[in-house]
């Protein structure tokens, strides 16, 4: 033990001398000159954020990686700078899994870089501005990302529906009293435009965009005749109505649409043909 201490005590002072430093520098230069003489290159490898350097005499990228004990997959991105002045650099971006979920199922992709839009394209999806995606399409993909996609579409439907017509009753002096005529009506048409929102093919929302009548309905008419047949005039141009010939009243003027704009103080009793029943004579004016 004392001898070891004695030897170390003699060595340490020597290591601190200029002679030792010069000798060490000479050895380093000799190694560098030997490396240059044999074509040795320093290669720095950046492996997904981890760095290491090796010395190699190989010039083939595959051999350099093999010499360094580095394996890559077909989906990894490897960038090689090439050899220049005894130095080279290799950058490796490792691929990772990205999942894309849609109605038909889940697709697992292997990507080293790209955006959400790239991932959708790789999954066979062409997304548009209406579709639902849980990430921005221009976001970069990251390991373990799960992208959810819903196909959203808008469909428009235009339909026409009939508008029922009504039947109105009118009295006509052109039609003989006791007779009726029917004038046909026609249905109208209403056109409505609907917008259906679909998600993955299923309708989830319907909105009415417009609704307009493109054809007005035409009312049917029931025409009741009020024309009185000509009778032989009596003295002074008066026509006497025989007793008992006046029909019984069935309604009055307040319950029907009359041709005359005059409104009597007391409703006038009318028969089933719309003629007054309580009168004693008919003045024709002839």
Please provide a written account of the structure.
- With 286 residues, this protein is an alpha+beta fold.
- It has four domains: 22-93, Ubiquitin-like (UB roll); 96-150, Ubiquitin-like (UB roll), CATH 3.10.20; 155-220, Resuscitation-promoting factor rpfb fold; 229-283, no CATH class.
- 17% of the residues lie in helices and 41% in strands.
- The strands form six sheets. The protein has a four-stranded mixed β-sheet, covered by helices on one side.
- The protein is rod-shaped, with a radius of gyration of 54 Å.
- The N and C termini lie far apart (167 Å).
- Residues 33-37 have low confidence and may be disordered.
Q: Please, what is the average pLDDT?
A: 82
Q: Which residue ranges are poorly predicted, with pLDDT under 50 across at least 5 consecutive positions?
A: 33-37
Output the strand order for the largest sheet: 2-1-4-3
Main β-sheet, in a few words?
A: 4 strands, mixed
CATH topology of the largest domain, by name, is: Ubiquitin-like (UB roll)
N- to C-terminal distance: 167 Å
Give the CATH level 1 class of the largest domain. Alpha Beta
Helical fraction equals 10-25%
Give the strand tally. 18
For the record, the CATH architecture of the largest domain stands as Roll
Number of domains: 4
H-E order: HHEEHEEEEHEEEEEEEEEEEE
Strand content: 35-45%
Count of helical stretches: 4
Mind telling me the C-alpha Rg? 54 Å
The global form is rod-shaped
Structural class, from secondary structure content? alpha+beta
